[in-house]
Every structure is written in C-alpha cells, then in structure tokens.
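This part of the workshop introduces the protein records we will be handling. A record pairs a protein's sequence with a compact description of its fold. Backbone structure tokens are a discrete shorthand for how the chain folds in space. The question running through the whole workshop is how a given chain folds. The record below serves as our worked example for the rest of this section.
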Amino acid sequence: MAALTIGSTVELLNGIEMPRLGLGVWRAEDGQETEKAVLTALETGYRSIDTASMYNNEQGVGLAVRNSGIPRDEIFVTTKVWNSEQGYTSTIKALESSLDRLQMDYVDLYLVHWPVVGKYKETYRALEELYEKGLVRAIGVSNFNISHLEDLMGSCRVKPMVNQVEFHPLHTQKKLFAFCRKEGIQLEAWRPLMQGRLELPLLTELANKYGKTAAQIVLRWHLQLGVVVIPKSVQENRIHENAAIFDFELEPEDMNRIDALNQNQRFGADPDNFDF
C-alpha cells in the first residue's frame, strides 16, 4: 500500500474519491464554534467534513467552507437525513433544507442516519433519486447492521457506497466489516476515539513506543485497517493532533494487539434497538 498522507482517499463504488480522514462536528455549537473548528481543520489539510441535519450546525459548516478560500469541489461534505425526516417525500425535502442551510448546490455524501423500521427503504429510494439528479455525489447509510444492509440491497437500485458506524478498538464489528468489504461498501467510523476512553495499558505502551498519543495510535489503526475515520473535535490542538498520524506506521503485530482489545462494547445506541 502506498504511504498514507492527509490527502489520501478511498475510491467508492461509483468511482468518487472520499478522504480517509475527516472532521466530525457532532455536538459542535452552530456559529463560531463550528466555523472555527472547520476552518482549523481545512487549514490543517483536512478535506472532509461530516455533519448532519440533527447536529443543527450545517449553517456553520457551509459558512466555514465558503470562507476557507478552498474550491468547493476540493472539499468532501457529508450530511444525513434524520429519523423524523425519513420517508420518501420528506427525505427529498430534508435534503433541500440541508442544502439551503449549507448554502451549497450539492453534497458529496448523503446518508440515512439510522435504520428506522418501516421507513429506511423509502428513505433510501429518495436518496437514489437525489443521486440520479446530481444533488448528491454518493449515497449510503449509517448505523446499518448486516440484516439492514441485506434487506436494503434486496430492493435498491444503487448499492450503498458507505456505511458509517460506531467502530473502535473496543467495538471492532468484525462480521460487519468483513461483509461491507465483500460488498464494496466503505466502512466509516464514528466515535473512533471511544469518547476519550483511551486509558488502556496497551494504548499507553504503544504511544510510548511510537512517540505518539493514544488517540493518534487509535486513529492510525483505523487508517491501516482501511476504515475512513472522522474524529470530532472543536479544539485547535486536538484537530492538529488528530491529523499528525501520517509520519509513522503501526507494525502488524501491534495492529493485531489492538484488534484483540475488542469487547463488543458500544458507547452509542444499538441499531437493532433504538427509540429516537
């Protein structure tokens, strides 16, 4: 594999290039906090920003992208349709609202945020239409288990290109990861840093070995697995730190040791059992 850089991308099923590293803005307050975080990330070299209608900060993301001075087509913007917006017609309207808040003509990736029973197929049908109209460059899902993916792929016209899920050393989702890889669906990790639960002896040991932080070790592990990663931060030093992961490489045995930390431990909701 060629050496990874902050500009490295993965090719999605339709040939679109998606950056391997992005900035997540979940819980970033709309306005100055979001704008500053996104601008800091873009100045650092990030070229992917992940938001959602539910985050209520699309407006700040769009403003930062416009003020960055970087051409729009060089920045990969992801947003998502929230559960209360799901359904065919309401999803079409949801994207219109997201584009209005972002002040953009298109988004690069549009995701079904959660697999709402009885709605996610109709929601995805709307995504297919939006994709065919060129309003989104790629479509996919978030928090879909294998059963949801199999159900969706049984009737969809356009296979999901991305599945964004909770993925980290304590929740490696090996079966789902293998299924997505077999189907050509790019896995993307949210909450990759386990909400800061990095005080694990192995991570401390490896941080000392490589002269990095535990967070950098974990993010590098994601990248070497081939998982797209979007660590969330609004702190300038953390945004810089999370990007400083391209000047070292984890040895295979250390990759395996991190894999072995898995406890199937979620910090977020279970896609088979959520009530929002």
Q: What stands out?
A: The chain has one domain: 16-259.
